[in-house]
Every structure is written in structure tokens, then in C-alpha cells.
């Protein structure tokens, strides 16, 4: 119900005088039906205020209790830290922090090193490629060396064959020399009658011999060889018996002051010395 239906007397506070008085009930009211009095709003507000105040006080007390417990825990922690500081644990903690800082610096240096790792990897890859190229070049050089060895082996075989032929030729020359040395002895054993020759012819022969002296070559022509479409004259210094002293001369090559001009067949060669041409026969 609204407050407009309440009577003015009902809104006024009760006083002792009003409590002592006995309300006079008109005679007509006794005959009227009983009416309901409206609610007392002031009591409701008063009761609500009391309840709200009670709740506020309860909340404040609860907050105080919680804060008290928090303060107690904080006090315990402070006391614990104080005790730890006094017992030296704080110093150990500082040491641990210093160690952790050093470890952090080491990790930072390692991270910086790892940052340069890609460049190192690229450099290693470049070096690997260079090594592969070097290995390939070495393999190519090895193959070329093997080819050179094969060619040298072929030349050595050819030289051995030539040496064998030269040895056979030398044996033949020695045999011929031995035969020539034996022939004068036979001629001495059986001398032939000497025929008289004209003195004029002998004088002419002596003069022609004096005019055209035949110098002896400082080497011996041992033979003529043909290799790869080229012709070589094989010579060896006189008195030398070692195979390493033998030389292969092609037209235009010089040896001991003598220059090879040309080759005749397989047993003779033409040399020039001091502007003159001389024909040497293979021995």
C-alpha cells in the first residue's frame, strides 16, 4: 500500500502521552467493519539500515581478519628473510645471481658465435667445392701422368729395341773389325808381287790427298732409325760405350760441332762442318 493512505497520526512517533492515553473509539466505529492499518515505512527503513550496518560490520570484520592473516604471513616472510640474511643465505643468493649472470654472458657469446655459424658453413662449403675441384684436377693430372708414363714406357721399349739393334750392330762392327784386322796378317803371310807404278801418278795422289784432307768425325754413326714418320741418325761419341751417351739427330740438329744435313738410305748420312759436307757411313 502507498503512504498516501496512511493517517497523519500513524506517521507521528509514539510518545508516552499517547501511549498512556486510551484511544477513544467512537460509537459509530464499533459498528463499522475492521480496517487494515498500512505498513510502517519508518520501521522498515530502520530495520533495513540495521541489517545493512550489520552486514557492513561483518564484512569489515572479515576483511580485518583476512588482512590480519596476510600481515601475519608477511611478517613471517620478513622474519624468514631477516633470518636468512643473518645466516648468510642472502650472500649465497647474491653469489648464485653472479654465477647466473656469468652464465648468461657465456650464453650471449655462444649466441653471437652461432650467429656467425652460417657464414662459417658457407665458407666450409666453398672450401669443399675448392677441394673437389682440386681433386678433379689431381685426377686429371693423374690420368695425364699415366698417359705420359705409358708414352715413356713405349719410348723406353723402343729405346731398348734400338739398344738391342745397336748392340747387334756393334757386335757386327767388332766382328768386321776383327776380320779386317785378320786380313792384313793373311796378306803379310802371303805377299803379292808389287807392281811398279808410275811416279807421276803417286805424286798426283799425294797432292790430292794434301788438298782435300778428310777430318775424322768425333763420333760414330751407328745407324739410321725412323719413328713416327721422322728419320733420325743415331750417333755416339768415339770411345763411349754407355747407351746413355747415344743421341738421336734429325736433319738440322748439331752434335759436337757437326750438323746433320740429310740421311741417305739406312746406312749413311751427310754432315757439314766448317762449311764442308762430309758423308759418314754407319758402322
What's the short version?
The chain has 7 helices and 7 strands, in the order αααααααβββββββ. The protein is of the alpha+beta class and 283 residues long. Strand 1 and strand 2 form a beta hairpin.
Descriptive keywords:
283 residues, alpha+beta, SH3 type barrels, 3 domains, four-stranded antiparallel β-sheet, 7 helices, 61% helix, disordered N terminus
Q: Termini separation (Å)?
A: 164 Å
Taking all residues together, what is the mean pLDDT? 76
- Overall structural domain count: 3
Bin the strand percentage.
Answer: 5-15%
* Quaternary structure: single chain
Helix content: 55-70%
SSE topology string: HHHHHHHEEEEEEE
Shape: rod-shaped
Largest sheet: 4 strands, antiparallel
Rg, rounded, reads 71 Å
Number of strands: 7
Count of runs of 4 or more consecutive helical residues: 7
Return residue spans where pLDDT drops below 50 for at least 5 consecutive residues.
1-13, 15-20, 25-30, 198-204
Structure class: alpha+beta
Keywords: Membrane, Transmembrane, Transmembrane helix
Transmembrane segments: 44-67
Region (Disordered): 1-23, 178-210
Protein name: Plasmid transfer protein
What does this 3D model show about the protein?
It is a single chain. With 283 residues, the chain is an alpha+beta fold. The chain contains 7 helices and 7 strands. It has helices at residues 8-11, 16-20, 27-31, 41-87, 89-115, 117-189, 199-211; strands spanning 219-227, 230-237, 247-249, 254-255, 258-264, 268-273, 276-281. Strands 4-5-6-7 form a 4-stranded antiparallel β-sheet, with no helix packed on it.
